[in-house]
Amino acid sequence: MAAERADTPVDTRTAPVVKWNVDDLKSSYVNFASANSTREEVVLNFGLNDTWDRVTPEVEVALGHRLVMSPFAAKRLSDLLAKLIGEYETRYGALK
User: Fold this and answer.
1) Antiparallel, parallel or unpaired: β 61-69 and 32-37
2) φ/ψ bin of 13: left (φ > 0), alpha (ψ from -120 to 50), beta (otherwise)
3) Beta strands 61-69 and 42-49: pairing type?
4) Which residue among 39, 73, 89, 93 is least enclosed by CB atoms within 10 Å?
5) Using H for helix, E for strand and C for coil, what is the string for the chain?
6) Helix (H, G, I), strand (E, B) or coil at 8
């Protein structure tokens, strides 16, 4: 690969390369999510509902994760999820 010359312009519009550090990554299965917000932040709660008896008057959900983010980050997440679900439905059919 040829070295760049000093007088070669640098394209500042390109995004940086992202390297994913997965050393401390943990995976969790969740089947419950709730969300609320204030003016400054959006809060997402994730948990597991392992109540299989649907006729029980009370259901306990074990919350395992809470994500707190700015509304700007939440909007980017919303757009990302909408795109992901659109791609999923293109491959496997519409979710109802």
Assistant:
1) unpaired
2) alpha
3) antiparallel
4) 39
5) CCCCCCCCCCCCCCCCCCCCCCCCCCCCCCCEEEEEECCCCEEEEEEEECCCCCCCCCCCEEEEEEEEECHHHHHHHHHHHHHHHHHHHHHHCCCC
6) coil
61 closest CA partner among 45, 39, 84, 80: 45
- The residues with which 61 forms a beta bridge, in sequence order, are 49
pLDDT at 58 over 70: yes
Q: Which 8-state DSSP code applies to residue 23?
A: T
Tens digit of pLDDT for each residue in 3-53? 555 566 666 678 899 999 999 999 999 999 999 999 999 999 999 998 877
Q: Would you say residue 80 has pLDDT above 80?
A: yes
Cβ atoms of 42 and 35 within 8 Å: the answer is yes
